[in-house]
Amino acid sequence: xxxxxxxxxxxxxxxxxxxxxxxxxxxxxxxxxxxxxxxxxxxxxxxxxxxxxxxxxxxxxxxxxxxxxxxxxxxxxxxxxxxxxxxxxxxxxxxxxxxxxxxxxxxxxxxxxxxxxxxxxxxxxxxxxxxxxxxxxxxxxxxxxxxxxxxxxxxxxxxxxxxxxxxxxxxxxxxxxxxxxxxxxxxxxxxxxxxxxxxxxxxxxxxxxxxxxxxxxxxxxxxxxxxxxxxxxxxxxxxxxxxxxxxxxxxxxxxxxxxxxxxxxxxxxxxxxxxxxxxxxxxxxxxxxxxxxxxxxxxxxxxxxxxxxxxxxxxxxxxxxxxxxxxxxxxxxxxxxxxxxxxxxxxxxxxxxxxxxxxxxxxxxxxxxxxxxxxxxxxxxxxxxxxxxxxxxxxxxxxxxxxxxxxxxxxxxxxxxxxxxxxxxxxxxxxxxxxxxxxxxxxxxxxxxxxxxxxxxxxxxxxxxxxxxxxxxxxxxxxxxxxxxxxxxxxxxxxxxxxxxxxxxxxxxxxxxxxxxxxxxxxxx
Length: 525
What we know:
globular, Growth Hormone, Chain: A, 20 helices, MFS_trans_sf, mainly alpha, disordered N terminus, 0% strand, disordered C terminus
């Protein structure tokens, strides 16, 4: 058995526990950035208007954090994990302050995009630090803990957002990030040792630009199609064609780059390919559920923003319990394949049940459905990162971690935009002439609905609930596809030590492919 090696950037004085604490704080900060806004969306729309662009408050953050994820891995190699994490936090906080200053939906979307530019770095660099200092088998337990942190943020974020909206103003949902951000900066300053020697690498700027442009064009097409413009309009067709051209050029560029943003050889690795695809599909279902469940509870069920967040607790319990349990199972057994199989099956059932919700569905039933959804989401995130880091050479762990995060975030971005288009078009078609003359859906809020005459209000609420059914049916279809893909996963026992190369083996053909795309897979052998 080969001896454990010292990680390239492990802190010398702080304990591993302190490093894990630093990572947990940064992940909590990034996760709250995604979730805290959900229960405040109706209030924000009520004040700023623009229901047609509501999902872009979420999409702007997800999209910007997605497209910068790969580049943060390269920046960490160039300048060290510590300075890159600190810079990401500062960018995140600047975006939060700008969001609080927004006086229009357009400005808010712009500010959320800036906030996401920081949030993307928090996720990727933090996960890479863990891979540097903890053996794969122990990472299962740690990743389960991080899944629990995300689960807490899933409910604490909306709950905190609902409480702030009710007792203060929605601007404070962004300003509340400031003390947590300062705490994260302080913990990182103590926990991580800056790199004394920089390693020179080349950054694949063309690949980064093409990937960012392609993803942005695709999400714009899915968000605006059927809403602002028709699906077969010149604008939407142009965006789709542009996305395909840029993504095609991205693949061509990556095959020739010295150090590609996303080495194509990774896709020859079964674990990376399958977990990325499953993460993409589960990301669609996850962010769609988190975005639209509070809206259903507030508008269709008539609960307050705070109560709508409290009713998300069953989802949090399911997510935390399943995530931590899967982490302990991986650590104890060194196995993981059955975990995503069971969880995605449960996720499919939970989403199908959510698609049956009506205005008179009892709260306990909705709680049970949400518990199943949370339990289905939890293990996927922790298993994907742990299994991928175990299955690829140590020299490309950073790129693989960024890639796994990238696909999950892409799924979330595209999922929210697709679900938003489905919901908006469905709501518009169902409302028809129900709304009063001059009324529309631009400022559709709980207050506006409650002010309608009772017969009209009932029709509007029925239309709202019915418009959400296709959203959850679509999410369930994505989860079912993910369930099928989990059976293609090849299980590799988790290594118990830090090695120069993990137990994953790369055959000669993969080494040749890796060399062609610039992935140094033979380093350390």
